[in-house]
Amino acid sequence: MKKVLSFLLVLAFLVAGSAMAQGNSHDVSVKIPNLLRLRIVDGSTAAATAPAVSFDYNSTTALIDAYIAEVNGDTSAGLAPTTVTDFGNAIVFSNRTSWQVTVSATALSFTDDVVAGLTAAGVALSDISIVPGAVSGLTAGTGVTLTAGWNLSTTTPIATGGKTTGWSSLGFDGSDYLLTVDGDENPGTYDSTVTYSIVGL
Amino acid sequence: MRCAFLLFSFFTFALGQSTKHSVSISMPTVLQLRINGVETNSQTLTLNADKQGMLITPDVTRLEVFANTNWQLTVAVNSKTKLQAFSDLQLVNLSPLPSVLLSGSKTKGWKEYEVSYQAATATIVEEQVTVSYILTQP
Predict the structure, then answer these.
(1) Contact B18 A57 (CB under 8 A)
(2) Which of A53, A98, B28, B39 has its CA 20 to 30 A from that of A189?
(3) Which chain B residues are closer than 8 Å to A162 by Cβ?
């Protein structure tokens, strides 16, 4: 009887072992980076090296005449940039659900390059405005909500958004900049550095 | 370690990124003059004497100045005939030497002035004279 029970016990182990087979396991871990990127680009998604917008209305007679016509109210459309360098788009990459972009600019520095003993006057950061897509034809991409326009003294967000599922256009470039003049500008050169910043919310 | 990662993530998330570009504005010096709607700096006057006195044709000139800086307008004539030019602001005796007739600062567009002429004496019979205007910074 004892032998029979031992045999049955061994048999049960063998059957159970055969039925359960064998297993192995491992952990899996996925880390998604926290992405919030903003770039000025020109023709690719690589950050432009020296993007610049220039309103040089002192270089030719035709441009001086354009300035005069604008001041005199013949066009009242604002003056377009005379040169845009390395600024074909502004793009954002976010996997956050909420972010905003703001603009800031350094105070305008003045150079008396006409040597008339003048100081800065008549040109303010608020005279430089951006009308997204007006000239470039760009539109806001996936996950981007853009305001209708802003100037360089605007303190409220110029764009908000969420996940962009890749690089997405903010919908403007350097050609969408516009300079408003009314004739009270002192002759000379005015310079500023404009910064666009993105922060998560 | 996990706390450090979370802290890093938070600051990355909170600070975000920025991108910069330069902007430059170059404003010209504008000093432009129009005489009767034409960009020129001189005008011919015809002087005739009759029984009533001296006739000057035209006897009024419409000047327009566009300046984005301080300016002055001088006037001179290529004749020794005693003529006077006067605006709302000034009366000058015309001579071959320039005299300041008008001055101002930024005009914010074309600003119009009217200049009239009169003869100080009526001693000539007929003459054509050229009145020259020069717009400069003082």
Answers:
(1) no
(2) B39
(3) none
Query: Which of A39, A152, A190 should be substituted to probe chain B, the one whose Cβ sees the most B Cβ atoms within 10 Å?
Result: A190
Q: What is the pLDDT of residues A39-86, one digit of tens each?
A: 999 999 999 999 999 999 999 999 999 999 999 887 778 999 999 999
Q: How far apart are CA B67 and CA A1, in angstroms?
A: 125
What does DSSP say about strands B91-94 and A109-111: parallel, antiparallel, or unpaired? unpaired
* Full-model pTM: 0.82
d(CA A158, CA A170): 10
List of chain A residues with pLDDT < 70: 1-21
* Alpha-carbon span A70 to A74, nearest angstrom: 6
Residues A160 and A198: beta-carbon distance below 8 Å = no
Interior CA angle at A62 toward A110 and A83, to 5°? 55
In DSSP notation, A90-109 reads EEEEE-SS-EEEEEEEPPPE
Q: Which of the residues B2, B5, B18, B26 would you substitute to probe the A interface, choosing the one with the greatest number of A C-beta atoms within 10 Å?
A: B26
